[in-house]
Amino acid sequence: MSAEAEQVTELSDWMSRLPAGLHNIPLFQLAIPGSHDSMSYDLDMDSFIIEPAHLKRFSRVYGARKVMHKWATTQEENITRQLDAGVRYLDLRIIRKPNDKEPARFYFHHGLCTKTDVESVLRLIRDWAETHPKEILILALSHFEGFDQHVEELHVHLINLIKTIFGTKLFHRSDTPTLQSCWDKGRNIIVSYDYPGNQQLDLWGKIPYYYANTMDPAKVESELCRVLEKARPSHCFFVCGLNLTLPEDSTIFRYVLWPRENFTKVIRRSLPELLQWVRQQTGRSPNIIASDVVTRDNFVATVVQLNHSKNK
Fold first, then answer.
1. What average pLDDT values come out for the chain (312 residues) when binned by 10 residues?
2. Helix (H) or strand (E) holding 288
3. Quick check: pTM over 0.70?
4. Is 213 exposed, middle or buried (0-12, 13-18, 19+ CB in 10 A)?
5. Helical packing angle, 263-279 and 62-72, nearest 10°
6. Residue 218 CA to chain centroid, in angstroms?
7. Catalytic residues
8. Please, what sign has the CA dihedral across residues 125, 126, 129, 135?
9. CB neighbours (10 Å) of residue 256?
10. How do the domains of the chain map onto residue ranges?
11. How far is CA 158 from the centre of its chain?
12. E strand or H helix that includes residue 161
C-alpha cells in the first residue's frame, strides 16, 4: 500500500497524518468531511413531530411518528463512531422540549426530538477530542427550536454550558485556524453558534451551508457547482451539502407513503453518483462537504483524498 493510500485509510486521525505542506494553510482551504443532521440516528418515536409544519397535527398518532422516524433518520452511526470514521464537522440542531420539567435542558432534533440531551453529547465529543488532540472538530449549533420564551436566558445558559464543557479546547474566532495553530495552542474544537445575539469571542458565527433543496442528485451537483464557481466564500468556513431534501409541501407524501422505502435507502442509491462529483472537485477547493449516511461508500476517504491531491 502506498504512503498516501495508507494515510487516507487511517481515518480516525487523518488530520494528524496530512502532509506537512498542509499544516499552515487555513482550515477554510482544506476538504473536511461532515455529517448532515448528525444526531438523527437517535430520534425518539415517542417525541412530538417538530417539522414539517403540516404534519405536526399528527403528532399524537404513533403511525405518523413511525413514518417520520423512517424519513428523518439520515445517519446510521452514533457521534463517536462518526468521529472515529473521520467526520470532523457536526450539524447539531438544538431544541428545548415544551413542558420539560427542566426548562434549561436541551435536545437535538430532525423531524422528531432525540432521546439523548445536548449536555451528554457535548461531553462525549469533548472526551473524544481529548484522546485525539490533533483532530480539529467543527460543531455547528443551529435552529434553537422552543426558545421563544426566555430566549436570551436560554441562549446564555447554553453558551455557558458549551464554554464550561469545552473550556480551553475552544479555538477563538479572532484567529485564523490552521492545523499548526490549533496544535500549538492545544485547542481543537471550533463551535459555530448560529444566533445573531452571539457576541462570544470563544464561539464562531454561522457557517454558510449550501444545498439544493431537492431529491434529485443531478440538481444537487448543479447547485454546488454554481456555488463553487460564483459564490464560494473566502476566508471563512462554508459547507457543500450533498444531502437530498424532502419537499416541504404536500408532495412529501409521494415519498413518505412508500411502504418499503425509507430515507436511508434513497440516500444510499444516490451516494455513488454524488461521490463521483466529489472526486471531480480536485481543483475547486470545496471546504466542508457534508453528507447523510457518512460511514457508507467511502464518503470520508473520498473527501480526505482531495487534500492529498491539493498537496501535490
1. 49 96 96 98 93 82 90 96 98 92 91 97 98 98 92 94 97 94 98 88 94 96 93 87 88 78 92 96 88 96 90 64
2. strand 288-291
3. yes
4. middle
5. 10
6. 22
7. 36, 110
8. positive
9. 18
10. 3-311
11. 19
12. helix 151-166
Question: pLDDT tens digit string along 163-177?
Answer: 999 999 999 998 899
Indicate the DSSP class of residue 49.
P
> What are the cell numbers at 3?
504512503
List phi, psi (to 5°) of 109: -155, 155
- pLDDT tens column, 15-32: 999 999 999 999 999 999
Give phi and psi for 93, each to the nearest 5: -105, 125
C-alpha cell at 128: 473524544
Residue 282 to residues 6, 30, 105, 158: CA-CA distances in angstroms? Answer: 19, 11, 43, 39
- What SS3 state is found at 142? strand
Q: What is the pLDDT of residues 229-242, one digit of tens each?
A: 987 777 899 999 99
182 sits in which H/E element = helix 179-185
CB 155 within 8 Å of CB 147: yes
Task: Report pLDDT for 311.
Answer: 65
pLDDT score for 9 = 55
Q: What are phi and psi of 128, to 5 degrees?
A: -65, -45
Burial zone of 131 (CB within 10 Å; 0-12 exposed, 13-18 middle, 19+ buried): exposed
The rounded distance, in Å, linking the Cα atoms of 148 and 132 is 37
Question: What are 229's three cell numbers?
Answer: 464557481
Question: Residue length, the chain?
Answer: 312
Q: For cell 471546504, what's the residue?
A: 287
β-pairing, 112-117 vs 107-110, is antiparallel
CATH level 3 topology of 3-311? TIM Barrel (3.20.20)
Q: Which amino acid belongs to residue 261? A: E
The gap between the terminal CA atoms of the chain, to the nearest Å, is 18
Give the per-residue pLDDT at 61.
86
Q: What is the pLDDT of residues 172-194, one digit of tens each?
A: 998 899 999 999 999 999 999 99
